[in-house]
Design goal:
By secondary structure, the protein is α+β, with helices and mostly antiparallel strands. Helix 22 packs parallel to helix 24, helix 23 runs antiparallel to helix 24 and helix 24 packs parallel to helix 26. It has 28 helices and 30 strands. The chain is 40% helix and 20% strand. The termini are far apart. It is found in: Cell membrane; Membrane. It comes from Anopheles atroparvus. Belongs to the peptidase M1 family. Its EC number is 3.4.11.-.
Length: 936
Amino acid sequence: MLLNVIVAVLAILAGCAPADGSRDPLRRRWRKESEDFWQEHSPAPSNAPGELRYRLPNYIVPTHYRLYLETEVHTGNRTYTGRVDIYLDVQRQTSTIYVHNRGLHITYNQLRSVSDNDIGDLLEESMRIAEDPEREFSIFSVRRAIAPDQYVLRVWFEGQLRTDDNGFYLSSYLGENGTRKYLATTQFQAISARAAFPCLDEPAMKATISLQIKHHPSYQSISNMPIYAVAGDLDGYVVTMFETTPRMSIYLLAFVVSDFPFIEDAGAAQRVFARPTSVNETQYALETGVRLMTTLDEYLGIPYSTFMPKVDQVAIPDFEAGAMENWGLCIYREELLLNEPGVTSYRQQTSITTVVAHEYAHQWFGNVVTNAWWSYLWLNEGFASLYEYMAADMAYPERQYRDLFNVQVVQRVLNTDSSETTRPMTFSRGATYDTIVSLFDNIAYSKGGSVLQMFRQLLTDDVWRTAVRSYLQDNQFGAVTTDEFVAALEGATQDLDLLPEGVDMRAFVGSWVDQAGYPVVEVRRTYRGDIVLSQDRFYNNKILNDDPTLWMIPYTILEEGTPLSEPLEWNWLTTRAAQVPTTASDDRWIIANVNQTGFFRVNYDTLNWYMLTEALIDDPTSIPVHSRSQLVDDAFHLARSNRLDIEITLDLLTYVRQERDYPPWEATSRVFTYFYNRMRGTPNYVLYQLFVDTLIGDVFLTLDVASVDPNEPLLHKYLKQVITSWACRMEIDSCLTDTREALQREVAGEGNVHPDVASIVYCYGLRTGTDSTPAFQYLYNKLLASDNVGERSTLIDALGCAIEPEQLDAYLLSAIGGELQVNYDDEERYYVLTAVLVSRAGVDALIRFLTENYPYVDSILGRSTLYSLVQSIAIRTNTPEEEQMLNELLQEMQAILPESLVASVQSTVASNLGWLSTREGLLVNNYLQRFRPIPV
């Protein structure tokens, strides 16, 4: 029945023949929206006292693994077999050996002595094994207790290639002739090496590894190390043997068995692998990898070749982790590595560049030096998050990647880190899979990178490099905690008068990494030559002045009239409050935390805010660009938490009519989005449109919506996309006309839209015109024909911009069609369903679709997808009529929706509908009613 409906509907979509679909890439925004929703409704985290129960005993230490695997993945067969010799340093008498095992069947085992670093006499065989699935242990019982010495535990086992993109798993793609081709690959971080072979799966349990893989000769295998031999077997298969790795954490082991070809730079010892139809899209990844490795070698002063002889990159069709830094073998989801000239957009290329930089930075931060336990994950991910921008900027200085860091990293995590449920950077929830994976969040990545950026700027780059090099050199092949990081900072600063009296480096660093949240610094001028500074924790929904948390805060102050090129002096706030002198005259503004170098917000007295606003309106460039961005971001969030009058924020925002730089506009766009989501559908929405139109109007006139200059700077492309997306959303006629005509020209075969403006042109070009059917069918056909994951992402989004009910209904139904009708993978099906959420027409269509088809969504995409879609609808419900539609959907789905979800959804809707009567809503509406554009 369902397939008949889909076949009928596909006539609207032009019913193209199937092609291979690829995992949607750069758009985790709807899943992120769902995560943020639940973060606001979840209890505060706490360290787990039962963690040790899941940890390995520390008196048995692995020193080497000799791993042998046999696979028939070329046939799609998921069964594989293997044997692993685990060399153990037993440091006290014991009668039990604990080894991690998730889902593997152990068929035989032996315990042997070690003689001359090799396998010696047989001591035990067929030892009794107690399986503990909850803790994922295989516990071997030795009949007679063994004394401290060196041993080898030899284990034969069978396993199944997983299908969840985790452990040793099965992947596939469609070849040129439409046949399904299979490959096997790995993703072991954080604790999934144990799902591939028995091992001691903790990051501090470092060992060397030698690997052999037996596979069909039509395939090849690659791993962390180069191949030293390939031998034929009697059954016609071959065994690929790899050189022994350096001492490393077991989660960094990786291998791929596939028919992928590669390109290489032999001189740089780098290769890039991809499926045969995509290997021609790997040149940029290779060139970028070589350039980034050279940059990091020079910057860090410890060449990569000190540790490893080569590095490979591999593009995998389905790789849930996104990208993984396995030492010498970095694995990526296709869209994060493949670059097709003329198709890949500047945003996608930026993602490729920074993701490769992130994974290459890990070759030192994470691989050479590894977090001792997952509670210190920020020591891996924070460094990589910082250098994904810094290294990319050093490699491509003309692109100014470093100028993206504050708006894309710092400001976003300042928002999420202001909730009551946030956690400290150093933190553990336990030692199970779910509790460890939950730590791979924006606190470990973005906050970690932001706090390290603060440390770097405080120390100056030269001193920071000295500290970083010492950190790497002193701890190479080791596992670290905060103590080793602090020791490196102490060594680099021992001759500097850096810290305030009574504060040591451990206290300074600990105040940022061991405490949840961050401070807001209140700057109150007496206008008698002094400033009163105070700090307390910033919450996004309340003021709590008695919070006991205290930070050691380094800060800078810029006074009006000071040359922007002049170095600024660092000062310290280490107490709850302090009074400090200022030389600024009463009629001149001051700015604290210049260019948002510190990880905190700043609030000022009303007069200083107004002086800053007047200065910005008179001449935005009188204030540094990142301070301008910071002022917008801080003012908005301070107003939202009732620390600042919302009218001061809105007055300050009006300066952007004169703004021509991207960072302040990115911060402004987030403010626009917040108010758009609350005012859409309300009586004063037209006043909001006038407000936004006024602020973007002047800069919009300087931009060409539908074309790209070959010499256009990267940050200007970001600026253009922000401005034009708002111009079209606010229905400025020229924006809609330009996008419609550009799309029509492509549909007519008169020239393709440039990929750097395609997302705007396709989306808004589809919304206007008397008959959008040809354009809709053209874009849908282009989606089905495309094999480029980045382009597919753009097209999925664009089709969701349709507003004709018939088109939307057909498009949504295509998401649950079978493989014979459409060529989406499961993740793309999910993104089809969320792509329509960009308009109210799309939300209404999704409600209609779920009302009729939620059982199919449940069976195809899962219950969590349904929950996420319902949450997304609730977030976009602003009127009583919309609420009624949502309630009818909830009633239809009541059998499968948990009460907690329904309650949260209803609370969200009540908050949306009640916003107009809140203090914030009333003040914003009053401001918009009084707003009159002032000629510039």
